[in-house]
Amino acid sequence: MGTGTVDSRAAGSGGAPREIRRAVVTGGAGFVGSHLCDRLRDSGASVVCVDNFLTGSAENVAHLASDPGFELLEHDVTEPFDVEGPVDAVFHLASPASPHDYARHPLATLKAGAHGTLHALELAGRKNACFLLASTSEVYGDPLVHPQVESYWGNVNPIGPRSQYDEAKRFAEALTATHRAHLGFDTTIVRLFNTYGPRMRPRDGRAVPTFVTQALAGREITVAGDGRQTRSLCYVDDTVAGILAAARSGHPGPVNIGNPAELSILELADRVRELCGSSAPTVFVPRPGDDPDLRRPDITRAVSELGWAPVVDLDKGLTATIDWFAARQES
Ligand code: NAD
Ligand code: UDP
């Protein structure tokens, strides 16, 4: 491995190290994407971030604006695009991700999964680069197998209120797998589970930013249904480490990337309230349609084949997240 590059080695295959000297990150001005841009830059790889700011913001990468190893290209990936110069890896993250966002942008979400994935794959093909798809635990739908293993095909309502996201990602996986099987592309699919941390939008509707901003402001904490539905929350640094481990590995996936520590939404609300030192009351609000009852990743594959596991526990991750939101509220 040369200095100033991400070390890339095909896990378990004895394959040659893959150097990522220059990467394209679609959706790089979003929550997860901006942290991925940071980690790639930390490794010395140069980064081209492609984003149309639908649900992200240039503010998330403003600290990289004067970095000569970072370029920001404002573009909608549902339209074809190209990038000048060599590219070693294309990380495709561009898509609304919060249920609130994909309900507001249903067609844009379907197009990001379909046309956006195709255009990102085509770029990887032209550049002879590896391609990573950021898929999601939503491909398992409201799962009937728990915890979720990669071999589970899922329980998805194809015309329900979450279908624009779930089916777009399932199609994106099919497109990626087909390019690998039939066109010889070098691809990886990671299925990300609920990820949280700094740079989430306070009003993106997801549980963590909503509860944190409510608790900090002393407003009612809005728990959907009876709050007994579960999620397993992964701190963003761990998720990004998993994405990079997958890209380095050459593993085709799919690989679950998430933290198996499962808790109910009511427990999450209580934890956030306590860590915020807040006395905000809980209010129970109607549960959205097709909201999954249970979610927990089986990460056996990621541990054994990528050598990756999350290391940040919930209290530590929530504290870092709360500190970030609190600092912004004060400024
Ligand atoms: P986000 O909304 O913060 O980031 C998505 C980014 O993609 C935004 O910057 C947005 O402007 C950009 N984008 C959307 N459509 C685009 C288009 N057509 N062209 C260019 N840019 C476009 O969401 P996130 O939480 O950072 O999620 C990033 C990726 O990770 C998504 O693909 C999402 O499906 C996946 N994922 C995230 C989670 C999670 O818990 N955060 C879980 C599973 C999967
Ligand atoms: N949720 C909630 N109150 C909120 C926002 C979300 O109780 O203000 C619930 C939501 O109904 C779901 C869980 O928290 O059961 C996680 O929701 P989120 O939108 O964070 O992620 P996803 O549903 O995509 O896992």
From TrEMBL:
CDD domains per record: UGD_SDR_e
UniProt GO BP: D-xylose metabolic process; UDP-D-xylose biosynthetic process
Membrane topology per record: Single-pass type II membrane protein
Transmembrane segments: none
GO MF terms held by the record: NAD+ binding; UDP-glucuronate decarboxylase activity
Location of the protein in the cell: Golgi apparatus membrane; Golgi apparatus, Golgi stack membrane
Source organism, top-level taxon: Bacteria
Cellular component GO terms, alphabetical: cytoplasm
Repressor is among the record's keywords: no
Keywords recorded for this protein, A-Z: Decarboxylase, Glycoprotein, Golgi apparatus, Lyase, Membrane, NAD, Signal-anchor, Transmembrane, Transmembrane helix
Cofactors, names only: NAD(+)
Gene3D superfamilies xrefs: NAD(P)-binding Rossmann-like Domain, UDP-galactose 4-epimerase, domain 1
Domain NAD-dependent epimerase/dehydratase: 24-258
Pfam families: Epimerase
PANTHER family: UDP-GLUCURONIC ACID DECARBOXYLASE 1 (PTHR43078:SF6), UDP-GLUCURONIC ACID DECARBOXYLASE-RELATED (PTHR43078)
Protein name in UniProt: NAD-dependent epimerase/dehydratase
